[in-house]
Amino acid sequence: MHSGFEDYVRARGDALRRFAYLICGDRHLGEDLVQEVLVKAYRRWPRIEADQPDRYIRTALVRSHVSWLRLRSNGERPGAVPDEPASGDFAEGQALRDELWTRLGGLTRAQRAVMVLRYYEDLDDRQIGDVLRCSPSTVRVHAARALARLRADLTTATIEGAKP
Amino acid sequence: MTLEEDLRVTLHDRAAAARPPADDLLTEVTLGVRRDVRRRRLVAGGAAVAVVAAALAVPLLRHDDDRPRPLPAASPPLADDWDRGPWTPSPFFSLRPTWVPADLGTGPEVLQLGYNEVLQYEKDGDVLSAETGPQEPGWGAETTGEHTADVGGQTAIVRTADDYDGAGPGDRFIAVRWKVPPSDLWVQVTSFGGHTEAEVLRFARGLDGGTGSVAGTSPAPFTFSVWPPRMTTQHQSPTQVCLVGQEQQLQRQPEGLCVLVTEEPFAPGTDGERLTLAGRDAELHLDAGSLTVDLGAGRLLSVTWDPETIPLSRNDVLRFAGGITYHG
């Protein structure tokens, strides 16, 4: 085993797991995804290590997950309620974020990836396009549809929640 | 907070709260690497057979180089059940406005949002629209005031805001929403700009069902010559048309197989398939569901689809896109 590869996995493993969890919305699927991508990356590690390994692995995680060929079962659904009850404004904010996390599960994989890359990784549209292998205009289309879908879903959820 | 800010906080909170599993990642990956090495050694034993198969496959698979490739003169035939045109989708609005503020003039646009129909007037930044259909419309802005009004004998909710994204001095947001018996269809009139609530209500009360329509006032800017079977329009606007399967429930947001024109230069990436479609430069990302065609003059035609729900082949995409005529 390359020592550089071991050092990289030790140093960046948890960050990769968190990113994969956001992309998949499922801890187990995210864990499988990280392992699969790292195993494949090992084959070409000397070349990857010489470039930008974080960027390479992040791109591989997204592409592997978004690819329509990667049809895997997804048992766990995101959106678990918080463990500790909260109160006041904090509770309202937490409830909204729980609802938002659940609604992210209703987006297509590409739309969800755009949301994570834009709002978690802070990438611009061109960088996201490079990851997803599409043009910046397609990224903007994905983003606009995702945000519109989330707004509509949250509005519906608010109305449903307000019914007696 | 805005939705975008909430998203940022939500994603960072979730990432921070994600507890790494008890299994050591390096141990799991090391085991995986060893399994991978063993599997590849086994596969190497069948390499002779694999080489022959790969050689046969090269002419079909090798299209990821940088050279533009014209469409083949004789494209593979479509499946027999593809629909054929020419077909120019024309959205339909089933209520007739009997009064419109004079400054908005004529020539409204008609849009389709899922099951709903929209009639929209726009001039100098002012927008006045009417939406009707079985799906409850969205308000479209953060509102600060709410009261009721009578529209054709129905109680309507009126929501207002003195500010919204893009508002100029004196601009207001006003929306009026009610249901029409006995169909229970929603109707909503929305105004962004300088029109008063009295004008918005007069426009709303003048919407006359059943005595005509303004159908066909804004046909889509695209004509299709072929399209996948059993699809129907899900979204139509002056710049975009989306198709989905006829059995699919329609959302208000654009989705499905969408054709869109945007004003931006063609800037292909490094790893898409470069090709020439009807004489124009194009870039295809089949697994991401994206085809971008350079229309020239700083405009792009984008065809997007969700490969999970609409699994189009490369030939499907190129025949569909190659049969689109843009009238813009």
Automatic annotation (TrEMBL), chain A:
<dbReference type="Pfam" id="PF08281">
    <property type="entry name" value="Sigma70_r4_2"/>
</dbReference>
<comment type="similarity">
    <text>Belongs to the sigma-70 factor family. ECF subfamily.</text>
</comment>
<dbReference type="InterPro" id="IPR014325">
    <property type="entry name" value="RNA_pol_sigma-E_actinobac"/>
</dbReference>
<dbReference type="InterPro" id="IPR013324">
    <property type="entry name" value="RNA_pol_sigma_r3/r4-like"/>
</dbReference>
<dbReference type="GO" id="GO:0016987">
    <property type="term" value="F:sigma factor activity"/>
</dbReference>
<dbReference type="InterPro" id="IPR007627">
    <property type="entry name" value="RNA_pol_sigma70_r2"/>
</dbReference>
<dbReference type="InterPro" id="IPR036388">
    <property type="entry name" value="WH-like_DNA-bd_sf"/>
</dbReference>
<keyword id="KW-0731">Sigma factor</keyword>
<dbReference type="InterPro" id="IPR039425">
    <property type="entry name" value="RNA_pol_sigma-70-like"/>
</dbReference>
<keyword id="KW-0238">DNA-binding</keyword>
<keyword id="KW-0804">Transcription</keyword>
<dbReference type="InterPro" id="IPR013325">
    <property type="entry name" value="RNA_pol_sigma_r2"/>
</dbReference>
<feature type="domain" description="RNA polymerase sigma-70 region 2">
    <location>
        <begin position="9"/>
        <end position="70"/>
    </location>
</feature>
<feature type="domain" description="RNA polymerase sigma factor 70 region 4 type 2">
    <location>
        <begin position="98"/>
        <end position="150"/>
    </location>
</feature>
<dbReference type="InterPro" id="IPR013249">
    <property type="entry name" value="RNA_pol_sigma70_r4_t2"/>
</dbReference>
<keyword id="KW-0805">Transcription regulation</keyword>
<dbReference type="Pfam" id="PF04542">
    <property type="entry name" value="Sigma70_r2"/>
</dbReference>
<dbReference type="GO" id="GO:0003677">
    <property type="term" value="F:DNA binding"/>
</dbReference>
<dbReference type="InterPro" id="IPR014284">
    <property type="entry name" value="RNA_pol_sigma-70_dom"/>
</dbReference>
<dbReference type="GO" id="GO:0006352">
    <property type="term" value="P:DNA-templated transcription initiation"/>
</dbReference>
<protein>
    <submittedName>
        <fullName>RNA polymerase sigma-70 factor (Sigma-E family)</fullName>
    </submittedName>
</protein>
UniProtKB/TrEMBL annotation, chain B:
<keyword id="KW-0472">Membrane</keyword>
<keyword id="KW-1133">Transmembrane helix</keyword>
<keyword id="KW-0812">Transmembrane</keyword>
<feature type="region of interest" description="Disordered">
    <location>
        <begin position="63"/>
        <end position="83"/>
    </location>
</feature>
<protein>
    <submittedName>
        <fullName>Uncharacterized protein</fullName>
    </submittedName>
</protein>
<feature type="transmembrane region" description="Helical">
    <location>
        <begin position="42"/>
        <end position="61"/>
    </location>
</feature>
